[in-house]
Amino acid sequence: MLRKTRIILAAVFYVLITLLFLDFTGTLHAWLGWTAKIQFLPALLALNVLVVAALVVLTLVFGRIYCSIICPLGVMQDIIAWLGRRGHRNRYGFSPERKWLRYALLALMVVTLVAGLVPLAALIAPYSSYGRIAANLMQPVYIGVNNLLAMAAEHVGSYAFYERDVWVRSWATFGVAAVSFVIISVMAWRGGRTYCNTVCPVGTLLGILSRFSWLKIRLDTDKCTGCRLCERNCKSACIDIKNRKVDYSRCVVCGDCLDKCRFGGLTYTSRRPAKTADAPSRKVGRAEVDTSKRAFLLGAVTAAATAAIAEDKVKFDGGLAKIEDKVSPERQTRLTPPGSMSARHMAQHCTACQLCVAECPNDVLRPSTSPGTFMQPVMSYERGYCRPECTRCSEVCPTGAIKPITRAEKSAIHTGHAVWIRKNCVPVTDGQPCGNCARHCPTGAITMVPLYPEAQKDGGKDEEKSRLMIPVVNEEMCIGCGACENLCPSRPFPAIYVEGHEVHRKG
Amino acid sequence: MTNIKKHISRRGFLKLMGGTAAAATVSLTGCKDKDLSTEDDYRNQVEPPKGKMTFRTDPKTGQKVSILAYGMMRLPSEERGSARENTSSPIDQEQVNRLVDYAIEHGVNYFDTSPMYCQGMSERATGIALSRHPRSSYLIATKMSNFAAENQTREKSIEMFENSLKELQTDYIDYYLLHMIGGSGMEEFRRRFIYNGILDWLLEQREKGRIRHLGFSYHGDVSVYDYLLANNDKYRWDFAMIELNYLDWKHAKDINDQNTNAEYLYNELDKRQIPVMVMEPLLGGRLSNVPEPIAVEIKRRAPEKTVASWAFRYAASKPRVLTVLSGMTYMEHLKDNLLTYSPLVPLNEEEENFLEQVAKKILTFMLIPCNDCKYCMPCPYGVDIPGVLLHYNLVKSEERLPEDRRHPDYARYRREFIIGQNRAVDEERQANHCIGCGQCVPHCPQRIDIPARLHEIDNFVERLKQEL
């Protein structure tokens, strides 16, 4: 009964939270956002007292069912372990608790959180690990299937599906996701919940509470024949039949043992407290960090690029001019999404779960590659810009790193300001009138002024010259959305780009 | 024999006569005693009969109203053309009298004017022409045209009403309208009619019988229209005047973003059983002067009928319509309209579908005339110019442009437009990447102002994206 209930609930939770990460259309998060917001570490970072208290009470009453039902990484391991067990009966056994490792990692986690080094803690945090796996490994597959359907839909003139680009937003984060997936999978395949009971700091913390939980798996020493069937089927390796003990700090209340015991020796009840045993297990690998960046070379490269474009102008044979991919300028201050309040707030609250990155419909958000904010989201505008009607990242963020904002609020949050680079600007390089930045600025912060004021003064005799205008930015009105940078015709380096603000101003 | 003749065109009949003169003589002699002679045939083609006018009944007073109403906005001037176009020339009163007499003789009894028509001269001319007939033989419609800010005081507005009575030489107005509500939105309406208490004053005049029917004419901002109808219990509108024709019925939006489809306007009135007065049955002449291929197609169906007659039949075929206004400057227009309505032959379903097809064809003439020759390409900044224009044209010609947020399919059209555009044109090559340099313009054989069109489409798409 316990086992069945657990499996059903876990399946439902797992499917829902996974869908939350997979969906890119923005339709599901309104319904499923809560599945991320009830995760322990995000709730803690968001100072969501209600959720944290509820999870504490839940654990004090039922034991670590959080790990069996709510935590997607735990359920993922259960699935992998189940696959690994097939054809291998009774493959587990008791192992002593690796206290040292567990509590050291928990202490490390607490220290890093307090010190504000959240990205470090995020590496082993269960929810964000799962988020990275879902966003980096599963979502591309999901979008791939969607794109096949979109092709089919286009073929029959349907609009049910639309194509979405698949691209790796950061190879470093992708690597972390892939490596953690492999390590956790191998551990789960071979040893069940080894990760949860040796590495996972949330597991350790809840384990402290679950020792005192009201309901527990109780071993009836009178009925127990010592057959060890339960022990050999315990994926948490926490039943010590030799000493007739259960390690409640590691038991995730999966209920597998209850069904295995043929003598009714195990019950999930509130009676009789029992002592605990201890033991840790395997080492956990760490992903290597790739902090390579694209170089931002102004000047020579730009000149070459505009020359290449100029060649295309000559022929009028139809066809399309080549478009070079845009290159992101190296921003002196990184851009964090509106709602994140400041670079520091973001760094201290974000667990790098990638939910916002997976949701961002404009391909603006991507994981950071710099060490201090590793894997946390930053904005860049080569593929799109932070559109005025979109507040999706602020809606999904479970940790409060990006606080919920409305469209109206967004339009008044200054996340950065635009900077004009004269030598890239089309009126200067090509002698063509442009103004695309000013035309698309949602706050009207850009005004076009004459490039050659002298030419206008003498009555606009030199028509070519006097019609050329260049943008000037009113930094007070600029909100840093990047419409100008994204729609600037200068390629690969834009003639106007956005510098981030360390602290977002309002109004 | 007579039946056959009725069904052959004039030209065909002449040919037949030339070919077989003897036979024709025999047949004509044979026809002499019948109700139709050759002379009749000639005359009937252009001369409207008397006593055949179709009338509708005003539900309030039971009065008979001719389905054709005379609009006094385009009165003939002494020089040439209507006094509206030729503003320097005074109204040709003699001609007005002639037209009015002829109209009344043929059953027209509704005359619509306003203090501002023909530079303020229309009411007087109308009054002069009509006062030569017994007051009971015609119905007068005029309007509160207090558009100018200095006319919006209570005193000035009342003065305007009183002056109308004087000019029209009468002591009551049969149909009095709040002129062009919605023109500049709700606040303007309040300034014109609410803050100065004029609407209440007009309601009083209705009680006193100085206004027999109170209504309004509507253009522009539909919120004012909706507001007036929502408060119908309070105001009890006796009628309302709207633009109605086979283009505006379903396609007003295609002509101008700010417009509202006549279908919606009409149905709102129909729901409340408010009689409908129709203006712009020809959409400012655009439904009489249609593109040549369309004119041919319409003529083909009924060679003897004018292109305009279809539009008049269309408007009058709506059962809630009390009368259809036509500003007739020339006798030919008057005669043709009288012919159409003496009596009205309502459109059948098939004919109505035909006009809907015509409307769609007229609209295709309003598409961006890009024929994908690609002379404009390659755009040095990578825009797929024909790709963007043709996708827009395609959706527009399919009548699936998401323009009206109240449209039940708005959300679907919006999604389809955005997805469809991304399928048709790479995102990096869409209209928002047009920098407006204009290098393409001299290459376009259709003389399309490409940057202007692209920026319009860009604005349209931007609005779509922001309206979630």
Describe the structure.
The complex is a heterodimer of chains A (507) and B (468). Chain A is mainly alpha-helical and 507 residues long. Chain A has helices at 2-22, 29-37, 40-45, 49-62, 65-70, 72-85, 99-115, 118-122, 126-155, 171-191, 194-198, 201-210, 229-232, 256-260, 300-314, 343-349, 355-359, 392-396, 407-410, 426-429, 436-440, 453-457, 463-466, 483-487, and strands at 216-219, 239-240, 245-246, 266-269, 365-367, 377-379, 413-420, 446-450, 469-473, 496-506. A two-stranded antiparallel ribbon of chain A has the order 1-4. Chain A has a two-stranded antiparallel ribbon with strand order 2-3. Chain B is of the alpha/beta class and 468 residues long. Chain B contains 20 helices and 10 strands. Chain B has helices spanning 2-6, 10-19, 21-31, 38-46, 93-105, 122-130, 154-167, 185-194, 198-208, 222-230, 232-235, 248-255, 262-271, 292-301, 307-316, 331-341, 349-364, 385-397, 410-424, 450-466, and strands at residues 55-57, 64-66, 68-71, 110-112, 139-144, 173-181, 211-218, 239-243, 276-279, 321-326. At the A-B interface, α15 and α21 of A face α19 and α20 of B.
Q: Rounded to an integer, what's the Rg of chain A over CA atoms?
A: 28 Å
Calculate the mean pLDDT score of chain B and round it. 86
Structural class by secondary-structure content of chain A: mainly alpha
Sheet bearing the most strands of chain B, described? Answer: 8 strands, parallel, barrel
Spans of chain A of at least 5 consecutive residues whose pLDDT stays below 50 are 273-316
Structural class of chain B: alpha/beta
Radius of gyration of chain B from CA coordinates: 26 Å
Total of helices of chain A:
24
Brief summary:
Chain A has helices at residues 2-22, 29-37, 40-45, 49-62, 65-70, 72-85, 99-115, 118-122, 126-155, 171-191, 194-198, 201-210, 229-232, 256-260, 300-314, 343-349, 355-359, 392-396, 407-410, 426-429, 436-440, 453-457, 463-466, 483-487; strands spanning 216-219, 239-240, 245-246, 266-269, 365-367, 377-379, 413-420, 446-450, 469-473, 496-506. Chain A has 507 residues and is mainly alpha-helical. The model of chain B is unreliable at 1-32 (pLDDT under 50).
